[in-house]
Amino acid sequence: QTELVESGGGLVQPGGSLRLSCAASRRISLFNVMGWYRQAPGKEREFVARITTSGSTNYADSVKGRFTISRDIAKNTVWLQMNSLKPEDTAVYYCNAYQNWGQGTQVTVSS
Questions:
Q1: Is pLDDT above 90 for 77?
Q2: For 49-75, what is each residue's pLDDT tens digit?
């Protein structure tokens, strides 16, 4: 079992930025893919972004061009840089590695 701990969420105005962090208790190089998902109130959890061991990235269409996923293998950490935030980005954001999930971090975009 791998523990994933997210941080960096908060309240931000539309157009603002946040950087989420996901710290893993094990080497993230063990996982072929690590990703970020989000769940808004009353909605199902949805894919946001993922990064592979080779460094390839994929994004949901709704965040493409605004969000960037990155990782530091030495620090066992994955980040999600979120720019140009919109109210519809409001959700709890979760880090994922295979069957392991973090507890989530709340992101609220509101004026």
A1: yes
A2: 999 999 999 999 999 999 999 999 999
Residue 84 has pLDDT above 90, yes or no: yes
Which CA distances in Å does 82 have to 3, 16, 68, 86, 100? 23, 8, 7, 10, 22
**11, HSE (Cβ side, Cα atoms, 13 Å):** 2
The owner of tokens 């969000």 is 67
- Secondary structure (H, E, C), the chain: CCCEEEECCEEECCCCCEEEEEEECCCHHHCCEEEEEEECCCCCCEEEEEEECCCCEEECCCCCCCEEEEEEHHHCEEEEEECCCCHHHCEEEEEEECCEECCCEEEEECC
Q: How many CB atoms lie within 10 A of CB 102?
A: 23
Q: Given this model, what pLDDT does residue 29 score?
A: 87
